Amino acid sequence: MGFKEAIIRSYDREADRARVEDLERRSEVGPAERLFLFTDTLGDPICRIRNSPMYNMLVAELNSELVGVIQGSIKAVTVHHHNPPKDVAKVGYILGLRVAPLHRRKGIGSSLVCAMEQWFLAHEVEYSYMATDKHNEASVKLFVHKLGYHKFRTPSILVNAVRYNRSSHISSNVEIAKLKLEESEAIYRKLMDKMEFFPQDIDQILRNKLSLGTWVAYQRGKSWSEGQVPDSWAMVSVWNSGELFKLRLGDAPLSCLMYTKSSRLIDRYLPCFGLVPSIPDFFEPFGFYFMYGIHHEGPLSGKLVRSLCNFVHNMAKETTGDCKVVVTEIGDHQHILRHHIPHWKLLSPEDLWCVKALKNNDAKNNLFESTKTPPTRALFVDPREV
């Protein structure tokens, strides 16, 4: 006996907002063996795509019940091997796919993805891509095994807890300076425009009110100017994601809850055990900073990256808001960079990016080649898509 086909249509804020939020709550499922984070959209279901150049949200209805939802955004980025020498392509990003638990395995998820791909094609998109937890078997089965997506990259999400009772150390030998917007954009376009998925509208990202600024670190005593940079230096930009939506911890296993309570007690009463990472109160919605565009050059640049990370931690610590973690995401071949970025392994999963060519055979052939070779270029993670 076949299933009745769901109706796919555009999201209507007045009619759908409350129902989408209810669907999000009912769809919260995480791994039992580790901590996991959920998103609180603060009453705005499209907040995660609202800052993209072009975006859309679709819902699925079955017998007047909202049973599925999907979001998508479009932008122009650098895609290696595509239309050289510029290597620029229009890509569509799929996120926020949810299907009500009682209506899964009925083809609703596939229908939503296909409908979003049709919207992409109507706007001349050449590649569609998505990101999921590397161990999300249901998502991999749907996108890779059923819908023809290819595994593209496995970047790491690095999460560092903000510890309000102490500041992170920054060496007195390190100078940290905030760049002007024009200088930041010039450096991005000069040094990073060959990164995979580097957005062509980087100026719009840097000028967005959620982008708090771009900072560079270099050895004290050295000089920094637009025409001259030191032998060793590092750069990072910061995005205030907590202004858009909040995170909160899911139903953690008992062992994690016990660790949370014990580590906080140790941190409170025995501060000399500072190496024991205490867990802030993550069980209520909280904000976070996202570090993007991390770049470093020179033999001492790894330590300078760490100094910048500590600087961002202290900046988050001084806020009057509820910023409790600092997050970044790095490519799967950036092992040295990972070593210098403070993070808490318990909350730092591996991501999986999957991509699909939507248009011509040349794009499909180029895509096939790029997914079969080890990554050699750094990956740019757009803060608007976190």
Please provide a brief summary of the model:
The protein is α+β, with helices and mostly antiparallel strands. The protein contains nine helices and 15 strands.
Characterization of this structure:
- It comes from Ziziphus jujuba (Chinese jujube).
- Pfam families: Acetyltransf_1.
- GO terms for molecular function: acyltransferase activity, transferring groups other than amino-acyl groups.
- InterPro entries: Acyl_CoA_acyltransferase, GNAT_dom, Plant_NAT.
- This is Probable N-acetyltransferase HLS1-like.
- Helix 7 links the parallel strand 13 and strand 14.
- The chain is built from nine helices and 15 strands.
- It has 386 residues and is an alpha+beta fold.
- The chain starts with 6 loop residues before the first strand and ends in a 14-residue tail after the last helix.
- The strands form three sheets. The protein has a seven-stranded mixed β-sheet with strand order 1-3-4-5-6-15-7, with helices on both faces.
- It folds into two domains: 185 residues, Gcn5-related N-acetyltransferase (GNAT) (Aminopeptidase, 3-Layer(aba) Sandwich), CATH 3.40.630.30; 189 residues, Aminopeptidase.
- The longest helix is centred in the last third of the chain and has 17 residues.
Q: Mean pLDDT, rounded to whole units? A: 86
Gross morphology is globular
Largest sheet data: 7 strands, mixed
* CATH topology annotation of the largest domain: Aminopeptidase
Which properties best describe this structure?
15 strands, seven-stranded mixed β-sheet, Aminopeptidase, 9 helices, alpha+beta, globular, 386 residues
